[in-house]
């Protein structure tokens, strides 16, 4: 069971890093033809889109802030904690 827990833990950790990279990419305004950005967007959009749809973006003047990556990262952090409790500290 520990091997499954390790795989799940590191998969969630990698996904957190990928979402963080996507957030940084969004600040840099990458080219839509960039294959790395398109790959990252394709694998993170299924997690971010429902959150973005529920919360929308926060606007202040002419600036908009999308907090969906932050919310998803926090949720994934809690998922990591649950994985640790179930696979490494359980009976």
TrEMBL record:
Keywords: Membrane, Transmembrane, Transmembrane helix. The chain crosses the membrane at residues 7-28, 67-88. GO terms for cellular component: membrane. Pfam families: CCB3_YggT. It comes from the Bacteria. This is YggT family protein.
């Amino acid at each position: 069971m520990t091997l499954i827990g390790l795989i799940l833990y590191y998969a969630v950790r990698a996904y957190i890093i990928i979402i963080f990279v996507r957030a940084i990419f969004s600040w840099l305004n990458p080219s839509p033809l960039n294959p790395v950005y398109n790959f990252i967007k394709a694998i993170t959009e299924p997690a971010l889109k429902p959150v973005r749809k529920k919360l929308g973006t926060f606007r202040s003047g002419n600036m908009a802030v999308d907090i969906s990556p932050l919310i998803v990262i926090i949720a994934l952090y809690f998922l990591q904690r649950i994985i640790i409790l179930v696979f490494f500290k359980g009976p």
